[in-house]
Amino acid sequence: MLEMLDYPFMQRAFIAGLMIAILASLSGSFIVLRRYSLLSETLAHVSLVGVSVGLLLGFSPLWMAVATSLAASWLIEYLRSSRGLYSDSILAIFLSGSLALAIVIVSLSGSFNASLFSYLFGSILSVSNDDLITMGIFGSLSMILLLLFFKELYFIAFDEEVARTSGLRVTLLNFMLVSIIAVIIALSIRIVGTLLIGALMVIPPVAAIRFGLGFFKTTLLSIAIALVCVVIGLTLSFFFSLPSGAAIVLCLLGAFVFALVVN
Amino acid sequence: MKFAPSLFEVRNLYFTRQGNEILKSITFSIPPGDYCAIIGPNGGGKTTLVRLLLGLEKPDSGEISLFGTAQEKFSAWNRIGYVPQRSALVDASFPATVREVVAMGRYASRGIFGFESTQDKEAIDEAMELMGVADLRDRLIGHLSGGQRQRVMIARALSSRPEVLIVDEPNTGVDVESQHRFYELLRHLNRTKFVSILFITHDIGVIAEDITRVLFVNQTLLLSQNPHEMIRCDEMSRLYGNPSHVVCHNH
After folding, report:
1. What was the pLDDT predicted at B194?
2. How many helices (H) and strands (E) does chain B have?
3. For the purposes of burial, counting CB atoms within 10 Å of the CB of A130, is it exposed (0-12), middle (13-18) or buried (19 or more)?
4. Quick count: other Cβ atoms within 10 Å of Cβ B103?
5. B-side interface with A, Cβ within 8 Å?
6. CATH number of the domain at A2-262, please?
7. For residue B104, what pLDDT is reported?
8. Which residues of chain A carry a pLDDT beneath 70?
9. Which fold has domain B8-240?
10. What is the ipTM of this complex?
């Protein structure tokens, strides 16, 4: 089985996949606890707009995905915190709106090409060395910020109002969190795909919460679940020629069902 | 001779929400050591007043100072402990142990690189002991009773070792026994730990013995430094606008 690691594309896929598993499940814990799970799904759809624009105009789809996802995350957080709109309504508007925009852009390009298909559902063949470097730089930055502000983000997830009155800079931290999530999603689309990355952010924390542990242990368990599922998913993808994103998400669903049955 | 600044000083405060006047011409000050109750009818603006004091809402006009510092320049928020209304209503599955919740009260003072110091650990343990929740430290907050959760939330507020504790309608959904313990605790904090207390309540009778000041809020404010006079039935009836019967009891 380990012979799959002889292939450079599989080595790259595993490095990228494990990095994404840690980042997505760690950041996902905060949005799940804030009942904001659809944020990941919405930003994934928004990043599809960036990918479409990139493919249409010949720019880097990855960077265009980062740019559109970041801009949308700031707008969503602004509308939620400053304009008093319901967060689920904002997310629904952005989710369907961005998908509609992406479809229009794709139709303008004349064909629904194979390249876009790999961004939609993920492909272990598509991770380049440049992608790994980009993911390494931005992934490390995101990781550092998440670890530095881990306790503050936890407090905000538990009680945003009291966190604010205790002197934490809640508005700034909220914008930081959505920015990190936007970047992680945009970086993840090569492996998991825009349509499936939401699952990697949401399912591991939800499954881990079922075990009734404190936050620190729940977060560690969530990361462990994501890592195991990414390894199994990529392995299945290699041996059965499956889209990597779909294989990973099916493994995550298996973990969730297991957590549900056991607890 | 120098005097300690007021805990809260409010001058000519006005606040409207979506065109509706919620508070108008509010002026008062609360000195250190006070045990102050905020009373008034539902929708009268009690919670809004507390939220304005804490900077959670912005007034249309007026001045607020905290510990002698203008609110917009105030940064020592660890001097104020806050337990909001319905704070004890926690999602049963939320992954937070009692110890993790109480430790949140120390987060702001630890800074981003700050690990939990010996002083932090002592403050957390002391707050849990004081509130009688030390034995529950590893239990999930969502698995506790309403009264236990309420004590955990107050322990969180106390773990920052505040000089004033603000509690908004503390006994919503809490049984009588827990209410009794709660009022005993407030008295203890005020008299032996010298923590000033500011709390919103509908239970007018129970405030009779301990409090030193009453703020009656119903859009405008009526301040009384003689609470026993204020809670007379005829005075209450006049303030609330309907016949009231005040029962003074030992909880």
Report:
1. 87
2. 8, 10
3. exposed
4. 25
5. 54-56, 75-78, 80, 82, 84, 87, 93-97, 99-101, 104-105, 107-110, 112-113, 138, 140, 143, 156, 160
6. 1.10.3470.10
7. 93
8. 110-114, 124
9. Rossmann fold (3.40.50)
10. 0.83
